[in-house]
């Protein structure tokens, strides 16, 4: 219960919710497409069971991601992927991206479609949420992940249209989300075990979080990551707009 009084816990919860809102729009679209041919009486069941299965699958994937991030160089790879995901948020999307999602008039076939599609599309969510949980430190990473996902479910499933309209009206929300991913990427990469020999760590601090041992480096890497995503994202967005024009 001590974790509920930790500022780092609530900061990470807020990050997880924002990540799921920004990166979960695709999942809401997949759910709608997969269940659109179900009878009205079964559509709600398809949405609920498909979402539940996708969330359970995501928790399992994040558990393995948190375990793997303890290995050298994997945080560097994960951080690089987060940079790419953040930049992708700032570049116009392909409208035909979900054309391959098949609808079904059978309940469990639609549920299976939702779960399989969510598994394929969950890499960005899994890495970003694992990075946010890592940033919280401590031994409560999985409770933090589960809590953040549970809070996000109703926002994604029932509030997706409202969220999409909000992001269309206030593009700064997307920009802030992309910069958040850059912040998480920067701080994640700094804490990779492979970089420990190159950092000015005091003796006996190897097991402590970088944010506790080198707070200035931690914040500097986060700011640098956020600014890098913003700069590169705007550059690629301008290039894409030029090619379309």
From TrEMBL:
Main localization (coarse): membrane
Bilayer topology term: Multi-pass membrane protein
Domain of life: Bacteria
Alphabetized Pfam families for the sequence: TerC
Membrane-spanning ranges: 12-35, 47-67, 142-160, 172-191, 216-237
UniProt keyword annotations, A-Z: Membrane, Transmembrane, Transmembrane helix
Subcellular location as annotated: Membrane
Entry annotated with the keyword S-adenosyl-L-methionine: no
One term under GO cellular component: membrane
Family membership noted in the UniProt record: Belongs to the TerC family.
Listed name of the protein: TerC family protein
